[in-house]
Specification:
Largest sheet: 8 strands, mixed
Number of helices: 4
Shape: globular
CATH topology: M1 Pyruvate Kinase, Domain 3
Strand content: 25-35%
Number of domains: 1
Structural class: alpha+beta
CATH architecture: Beta Barrel
Helix content: 10-25%
Order of helices and strands: EEEEEEEHEEEHHEEEH
Amino acid sequence: MKILSVNVASAAPLLIQGRRIMTAIGKHAVAGPVAVGTLGLAGDEQADLSVHGGQAKAVYLYSAAHHAFWQTVRAQAGVAAADAPLPPGLFGENLTVAGLDESQLWIGDQLHLPGCTLVVSEPRNPCYKFNAVMGFPQASSLMNQSGYCGVYLAVLHPGVLQAGDAITLRPGPREVNLRELFLSRQQRGRRTFT
């Protein structure tokens, strides 16, 4: 388990359905050590603090294991070639990682890195901005159905992190699995609104 890239962005306007919307979903990879504090990574912003950021959502992690799925659906939607690589930060994630995904994580698990410690806090729920960045309107629905949501992390011990850092998983209480929680929320939402 390791960090493949560390990604940050400043909030900027994005044209979505004819409106200019402020967002920091367009993350890009940065080289070298990046400071991480209780509210997130140095150089990273969130445009809508009602749904992103804060102590429980300081860092967003996404697994590179899901890239093949997204390459396939983007090709099917006609927005990219099937073999087109996905740029780091495409999902709005701060950390693109290998060897770790939602099915392996539980609320309260700790991710120990050489320079800091992060704690699994909750799954990410996609929004219309995700559809815009992915290039097709069904992207959020596919994230909801697949459970490939990524994970929000709180910062237990601030410090630094960087691409290449090894991740050591220390299990928490193991009462609530992240992917199961996400999928159960989606099921409840479908029953409520149908």
